[in-house]
Amino acid sequence: MTTVSETPQKTMVISRRLRESIRLHLESIYPEKDSRALTRQVLEAYWGDGAVPRKRGRVAGNNMWSADNTYVITYGNSIIDGEHKPLSLLQDFVTENLKGVIKGVHILPYFPYTSDDGFAITDYRAVDSGLGGWEDIERIGREFRLMSDLVLNHCSSQSSWFNEFRMGHAPYKDFFFTASPEDDLSSVVRPRAHPLLRKVETADGEKHVWCTFSHDQVDFDFSNPEVLLEFLRIMRFHINHGVRTIRLDACAFIWKEVGTSCIHLPQTHEIIRLMRVLADYSEESIVLITETNVPNVENLSYFGNRNEAHMIYNFSLPPLIVHALMTGTSQFLNAWQMAMPPAQMGCAYFNFTASHDGIGLRPAESLLSDEAIGEMVETVKSFGGRVSMRQLSDGSMRPYEMNVSLFDALKGTVKGEDEHNIARFLCSQTIAMALEGIPAFYIHSLLATSNDYEGVEKSGHNRAINRHRWNYDALQEALADETTQHARVFNAMRELIGIRTRQPAFHPNATQFTLHLGEKLFGFWRQSVDRTQSIFAINNVTDETLEIPAMALNLIGGEQWIDLISGEAVGDAKINFAPYQCRWITNRA
């Protein structure tokens, strides 16, 4: 064991294994720097406030989570009333309605910001005063597992850090990535269509800063170790305020090198591996989740070799589910699921169907044809949705995401609107609940919120269509009226989630195999880690009434099989499915 002096009064004991692991990662990231000196700085940045590391790092295993792990995704001001702090209202809502049903709460960026609904941060150490304060964040963190965003790639162009950069003040004068308009940037992967570089005047002359997402979101330069160290300090600061799941926002873009794609570069993965080491040696149970809205194979790379993210967003799931339910065929959903590897031990998929962003289409590339994507896009537009574009290296434009509330996206099929909106929507959620991984529900999916056209008009941004702010009194009134779409969906979701969280076969790492039941059904088998429970999750993705013989499933003889959702016993006869009906057939009630 070795030591690092934190203060004259306190000495931090560091294992040689931890120190050496950090040093090796730093050597890969910064080969020209003194890795031993940097190691000391990393230790002081992350543990220098009085926290101490574990003697040994946690070993990746399936005991990190259980079947009852679920999250709700929400903005801090998704619920307002014009009188109380939005974070206080949020706490009241989740405590009164979701306590014991949902285990985790992901509050989207709650820091001061200038644009992109929180993702252009001006101060990473403050809570937006319009939402509340750290005491409100900590209160939610005491009752639920709290997920928070670490927006690594960029900050607001109006932040104090960027102002210091423009004035040439250390250390911020080297905090932001710059390039020349003469550089070859043709290989850079772009998620947006605006010009990549923004010209700014600084004390050192004219510079062109790199802006991956918008000109108000200026990218950091992680080739400067001071940037990494500052974010490690911020990680620790957030952990000290109750954050236990850290979402690494847009992390695929954090390392740039002119002449490359500037996405998924080796240094990016090394930085995440370094953060994983720090998380595994933390006394607190810290989970890292990467947000990488990219094609499926690229997304899977962020598990690393059980040494990067604990969880990754299952980004291909939303467009594939929407396509299956719009077209009535599980062909592409089945093909994708059969090719998906099980998550490695100590890793898990984060299964979501909707979020504050749109339904990303990049993760569907190579999984859906251009024609299939085009048909889905046109259908969403006919249901009142919008489409955001991205620019390719040749200057052409391609659909990047569909902006629509998921409830409205599923109000019909490619044939048009019909009467199956709620059944179709609940089918989408039931699929996500049963798949291998940890399910997460956007608050506006739980509440069956429709497209917010007023929000789009006020903000001028397509994504506002699915970022409605509910008046708390109006929300409570809507949920109290059992005839509204909001109450019908919310009550059904609470019941389904309650059933789901009691099943060992729905453990995030429980065995999963895809069933071959034809294109009108999407089915898979889950088995608990101890092999005592099997669940056949079968979902009708059509507006037709279907039936299958019970012998199509491997129902072990001598056991009682029931559908957990309907409560019906399943025998040797045929199994019927109403339009969009889902069944969880199990041998253990």
TrEMBL record:
Keyword check for Transferase, yes or no.
yes
What are the Glycosyl hydrolase family 13 catalytic domain coordinates in residue numbering? 69-500
Q: Which GO terms describe its molecular function?
A: glycosyltransferase activity
User: What positions does the entry give for substrate binding?
Assistant: D116, H154, R247, L248, D249, H356, D357, R463
Q: Does the keyword Metal-binding apply?
A: no
Question: Taxonomically, which superkingdom?
Answer: Bacteria
- Which protein is depicted? Alpha-amylase
- Provide this UniProt record's keywords sorted from A to Z: Glycosyltransferase, Transferase
One GO BP annotation is:
carbohydrate metabolic process
Q: Which CDD domains match?
A: AmyAc_Sucrose_phosphorylase-like_1
- Extract the Gene3D superfamilies matched here: Glycosidases, Golgi alpha-mannosidase II, Oligo-1,6-glucosidase, Domain 2
Q: What is the scientific name of the source organism?
A: Martelella lutilitoris
* SUPFAM superfamilies the UniProt entry points to: (Trans)glycosidases
Q: Which InterPro entries match?
A: GGa_phosphorylase, GH, GH13_cat_dom, Glyco_hydro_b, O16G_dom_2, Sucrose_GGa_phosphorylase-rel
